[in-house]
Write a structure and sequence with these properties.
5 helices
């Protein structure tokens, strides 16, 4: 009888352990109207990590124990490849230079020679997705009253990319020549924009990745409706 009880306890504990290791698939809405699908085991990213918008896959990759592994694919709206990056080799295999040219990229090495020769930084997300995401989050950070008065030709979102790949995001604009800047929140776990960092001869350098955008004022019907990561 004692053996039977011990056996039942072991089976129960084993079942709990298996349940704790169950693969879960979850979804998250993103600011550009796309949806992130990701898998976790025990609350950690493991398995598929994929973003779809309007029925099209725009990003596809995999995680193992919270780390990105293997090939990651990023797609443009016309289904063409924007970039392919291999995390195991830490190697960029392809990037769409024409789409990347939509941004201004400044390497901050302190040397003009290195700045001109270094590889450029860019986000591991398609430019067609990057633009609306950072624009929506910029609209969230800027006071609503400013969106009616600002010079739309002066609006830029700047990602300041550190040597470790971490990026801080800012929106800059002008109102009658008066310059304004606000820090914006773009990353929200598990949605994190990873970056290829500027480098030259094996050394990485900080950089700025700048895109010109426009900010929409809140509608008259619902002036408070702005994207909220808490939704």
């Amino acid at each position: 009888m004692k053996y039977l009880i011990t056996l039942l306890v072991c089976i129960s504990l084993g079942a709990l352990k298996v349940d704790a290791q169950t693969l879960r698939q979850e979804k998250m809405n993103l600011p550009d109207g796309s949806r992130l699908t990701y898998q976790t085991i025990s609350g950690k990213l493991n398995g598929i990590y994929s973003i779809d918008k309007d029925g099209l896959n725009v990003l596809r990759g995999n995680y193992v124990n919270e780390k990105r592994v293997g090939n990651w694919y990023l797609f443009n709206r016309d289904k063409s490849l924007f970039a392919r990056y291999n995390y195991d080799a830490k190697k960029l295999l392809f990037v769409d230079d024409k789409m990347l040219a939509l941004a201004t990229i400044n390497v901050k090495s302190g040397s003009d020679d290195i700045n001109n020769k270094a590889s450029v930084s860019f986000p591991l997300i398609s430019m067609e997705q990057y633009f609306p995401i950072v624009s929506r989050m910029a609209e969230t950070a800027v006071p609503a009253s400013d969106t009616y008065k600002l010079d739309q030709n002066s609006v830029y979102v700047i990602a300041k990319v550190a040597t470790d790949g971490h990026a801080d995001y800012y929106v800059n604009y002008e109102i009658k020549g008066d310059k304004k800047e606000y820090k914006i929140k773009v990353d929200n776990d598990p949605f994190i924009i990873d970056w290829v960092v500027s480098s030259y001869e094996g050394k990485t350098y900080p950089s700025e990745f700048i895109v010109k955008t426009k900010l929409a004022a809140p509608s008259n019907q619902d002036p408070h409706k702005r994207f909220n990561w808490m939704q």
